[in-house]
Amino acid sequence: MKDKRFFPRQVVEASGNRWDWVMLPIVLAFFTLVALAASQMARPFHLGEALPISLEPAVLPYYLLRTTLRMFIALGASLVFACVFAALAAKVKALEKVLVPLLDILQSIPILGFQAIAVAPFIALFPGNLLGVECAAIFAIFTSQAWNMAFSLYQSLRTVPQELKEASKVFQLSGWQTFWRLELPFAMPGLLWNMMMSMSGGWFFVVASEAISVANQDIKLPGMGSYIATAIEARDMHAIGYAILAMLIGIVAYDQLFFRPLIAWADKFRFEESGGENAPSSWMLTWLLRTQLLQRIGDMPNTWLERSFGWFRREYDGTSIRARAKPANPLWSRAWDALLMAGLLYAAVRLISFVHAEVGWGEAAHVVGLGFLTLARVLILIVVASLIWVPVGVWLGMNPRWSNKVQALAQFLAAFPANLMFPLAVLAIVYFKLNPDIWLSPLIVLGTQWYLLFNVIAGASTIPQELRFAAQNLGLSGWLKWRRYILPAIFPSFVTGAITASGGSWNASIVAEYVQWGDTTLQAHGLGSYIKQMTDAGDFPRLALGIGVMCIFVMAMNHLLWRRLYRLAESRMHF
Amino acid sequence: MTALVELKNVAKSFKASDGTPRSVLENVDFTLKEGEIVALLGQSGSGKSTLLRIMAGLIPADGGDVRYRGQPLFGPAAGIAMVFQSFALFPWLTVQKNVELGLEARGVPAAEREKLAEAAIELIGLAGFEGALPRELSGGMRQRVGLARALVTEPAVLLMDEAFSALDVLTGERLRNEILELWSSGEMPTKAMLVVSHNIEEAVMMADRVLIFSSNPGRVRSELPINLPRPRDPDSIEVRNLIDEVYSLMTASPHAVHGTAEPVRPHVNDRLPEADVNSMESLLELLLSDFEGHADLPKIADESELTDEELLPLSDALHRLGLAKLEHGDLVITGLGQRYVEGEHEFRRLIFGQQLLANVPLIAHIRHSLEQEQSGQIKEEPFIELLGESMDRVEAERVLKVAIEWARHGEVFEYNFNTGLIHLPEPDEI
After folding, report:
1. A167 and B57: CB-CB below 8 Å?
2. Are residue A126 and residue A168 in the same domain, yes or no?
3. Are residues A415 and A364 in the same domain?
4. How many domains does chain A have?
5. Are residues A278 and A377 in the same domain?
6. Interface of chain B toward chain A, CB-CB under 8 angstroms
């Protein structure tokens, strides 16, 4: 029986080991579920048709599946977008001038704004099919995920170490080969971290992205967001509870099945050359690495990639006349600059005439005033949250026994959509007859305060041991200890956390300043509630005005406040 | 002997951050011939690394002609490989994959790639480590990977950019000797090597020719052929003499070489050497205690365990301050230097301050300007601008930093980092 020649090829080569058999059900189940959800995404649908949303807990797994699938499709699209964007911005000087400021603007536009613009074209793209609506929802999620990933990748591409770049040139790597062999691996840790942040960001707007209104019609796509929206309309506290539970399970599941393995695998892309003591591990990855057959399938992209290196290689070396640098014509770059200036001027003129004709200057001034109200909210709440979380974070960070556990918890809380807690706030405010202008404000930082906490913990835990001993030895205490030692030491990580928190808070203001619970609506005066109202009213010019003003506020704050603090932190306060 | 790489009248300047061009290379003529090892020596900032990168096709020359095998060079050529100071290995690729990199880029089929890479790994003494990631290897082994990666592409020219300076002394020496053995045995496909170094012994041990670069702008100041057979004994008289000769060539002022007898006069815009006061004092003490005040630079380098890159600026600084004299590659303590070493802390400070005012025009100028001010303080900016007239901003800031450090030690003036103000010392401190 040793002679295998007489067996069909499939039998002889059908290798695999028991780990393949262990993983097989998981893999099959995964593919079945994805196929099921995907087939439901592209079914016939006509405007006006009702999509019933059930509040039965039994449908939650299915809704969770649909929402998760949407988020992962959006994540994939964000990844492709980030790669193309970063490669173009980092390699082509002329495009960099446009793309980087553009991303800055895109980043500060709240996602409701994108949705308002994008729904109609997507539905027109797939007439008579649900796919158009699905695409609009996915696009909305995409806009909450893509920008920070693109920015992180762009930053990484610009900071690839000089000697590695030189090595790839000396050894004749083509642009394609350099991207896959050097640039993407180098950017991997930052990109992964941002993918996880993006996933969390996506959850926050899951309600907004799945409930789409078009042509005075509310379409609720089957998913967690619609479930929550329906539960809020029906004032069903139990359903909210079930939704929280389902979401918890969902977040833990994709963390364990997707992000943990990915992070453990990507540990080899760490750039520090010394071996780390606590390399991240994942049971899922360990299992996958023990399989044989699955591994071979998993290796296939790698094989294709290596084959593609053969196709896209450099065809000539430095001795060829083709390698000669063509002297750049200064006329072209000047023409490009002129074109950009003209475009900018045109946009400004259009904007002014638009405001003048459609909404009037009085309204514009009013909206700017609302912007200052929201600005005050964001700033005050970040200060309040800092006063609470900085001492807590420092204490936790200096107690290593706690810091790891709490840090994981804080990251999880940041991922958890805080808007699920809003109904509680509504009930409390109505019950105690509180002023919504003040008491709705804390909701703005409900979800984003955790960024402050876990950045401060991270900062405090990296204070060098010697510095701690020195502070103890000198007997530093009280305010002096904070001013001279702790605050400067955690300042850089605090700034990082505060930047993230403030960016998220602006976006959250749209949801937090205008809260509904059944037919009870609570509203605070501010830019967020203005945008939300105009979205509901379908008043496109005013919506555009609101979004534009928010965009200006966010960018001004980034440039005038955060970037300066960041520079201060970089030049003065680091070890 | 055919010429592999030819440089004719090559010049290169970079745009400084303030927009003024700063010349790093001027009028460089150089030919790398088949069958020779050439070493480029020079102090840091002399443009030797820039020259290496021009030959590698990594940066274009501004003027002049660069040719490889008679062809003008516009970019990295397939026949020229490079070994990097910090190894430049891809940390996420295994040793095997790192070595295969150049072959993969050229589209060599996988099976052949593997075979060639294994042969190169074997040749360089890394067999068994094919599957390791660079971070698991020691520095010496990492540089072996860097070497294997270069050799596997069968380059005609191998460029080494301070390839041993990131390794400890023993490891560096061993790797260097092994490369020389490979070179002599003919197992290497390489036909010529160019070694950029700041280690004088290394250059003399390896090269058939040593080129010495002068700084600002970089140009070939002198050339020294070495006709000793290999392997060379570092302790032999011939090698010792050569090392001595290179030291004296490197420390001689450029004017002396060109034959003008007039001594160079110090000037406000002098580029002060990167020398910290503590090391200067230690060097002076060592000179007096171990060498009776007169020693060969290579001997001091041995005894003090300073690298040439550290020792030469220190000697230059002592020379400038009149605490020691540089003569034909020797360092000789002066009478003042002797009293300085024997003096107490306060006395040292006094002498140091006096010497600064007498011999470093920049410091004298700053002190004078401060004394004119009512408040006794001036922003640092005008002085950076003054220096910026003859150097770029980064260099100007560096020079001012050195001046401040020296002046603080001699209590000539002080500087407040937070305000950016240079000010006279507090009266009660003097």
Report:
1. no
2. yes
3. yes
4. 2
5. no
6. 53, 56-58, 60, 68-69, 71-82, 84-86, 88, 90-93, 101-102, 104-107, 110, 133-136, 149, 153
The answer to whether residue A52 sits within a structural domain is no
Work out the minimum CA distance from A283 to partner chain B, whole angstroms. Answer: 22
Q: Is residue A324 part of a domain?
A: no
Kindly indicate the confidence band of residue B258, based on its pLDDT and cuts at 50, 70 and 90. very low
**Measured distance between the N- and C-terminal CA atoms of chain B, rounded to whole angstroms:** 67
Tell whether the model's pLDDT for residue A527 goes beyond 60: yes
Residue spans of the domains in chain B: they are 3-79+155-251, 265-430
Q: Given A278, A313, A348, which residue is the final one in a domain?
A: A313
Domain identity same for A295 and A387: no
Average pLDDT over residues A451-475: 83
Measure the CA–CA gap between A544 and A109, rounded to whole angstroms.
10
Q: How confident is the model at residue A5 (pLDDT cuts 50, 70, 90)?
A: low
Cβ atoms of residues A236 and A80 within 8 Å: no
Q: How far apart are CA A308 and CA B113, in angstroms?
A: 16
Sign of CA pseudo-dihedral A354, A356, A361, A362 = negative
Tell which of B4, B49, B67, B74 to mutate to test the A interface (max A CBs under 10 Å). B74
Q: Is residue A492 part of a domain?
A: yes
Which residue is associated with the tokens 């970063």?
A: A86
Note whether residue A303 is domain-resident: yes
* Structural domain of A456: 335-575
The residues near A562 (Cβ < 8 Å, ≥ 6 apart) are A495, A498, A499, A502
The pLDDT of A288-313, averaged and rounded, is 82
pLDDT digits (tens, 9 = 90+) for B116-169: 999 999 988 888 999 999 988 998 999 999 999 999 999 999 999 989 988 888
Q: Residue B105 and residue A169: Cβ atoms within 8 Å?
A: no
Q: Are residues A295 and A358 in the same domain?
A: no
pLDDT tens, residue by residue, B314-372? 998 999 999 999 888 889 999 999 999 988 988 999 999 999 999 999 999 999 999 88
Q: Given CA atoms B245, B251, B255, B261 in this order, what sign does their dihedral have? A: negative
A567 to chain B nearest CA, in Å? 15
Identify the burial level of B427 via C-beta atoms within 10 angstroms of its C-beta, where 0-12 means exposed, 13-18 middle and 19 or more buried.
exposed
Cβ contact A275–B135 (<8 Å): yes
Based on the fold, state whether residues A417 and A497 are members of the same structural domain: yes
CATH number of this structure's domain B3-79+155-251: 3.40.50.300
Residues A371 and A508 in one domain: yes
Angle at B100 between CA B66 and CA B192, to 5 degrees: 35
For residue B31, what pLDDT is reported? Answer: 92
Residue whose pair of structure tokens reads 């809020």 in the numeric block: A232
Mapping DSSP to helix (H, G, I), strand (E, B) and coil, where does residue A53 land?
coil
pLDDT-based confidence at residue B308 (cuts at 50, 70, 90): confident
Say which CATH number the domain at A427 has. 1.10.3720.10
**Residue with the larger pLDDT of the pair B39 and A30:** B39
The residue in chain B having the minimum alpha-carbon distance to the alpha carbon of residue A313 is B105
Q: Establish if A320 touches chain B: CB-CB under 8 angstroms.
A: yes
If you average pLDDT over residues A138-146, what whole number do you get?
88
With a cut of 50, say whether residue B262 has pLDDT above it. Answer: no
Residue A487 has pLDDT above 60, yes or no: yes
In angstroms, the Cα distances linking A378 to A418, A490, A503, B18, B242 are 16, 22, 9, 39, 72
Would you state the structure tokens that stand for residue B323, as one six-digit string?
């605490």
**Mean pLDDT of all residues in A330-335:** 84
A163 to B77: CB separation less than 8 angstroms, yes or no: no
Phi, psi of B244 (to 5 degrees): -55, -45
* DSSP label of A277: S
How far apart are the C-alpha atoms of A513 and A530, rounded to whole Å? 9
Answering whether pTM is above 0.90, one says no
Residue of B nearest to A310 (CA): B107
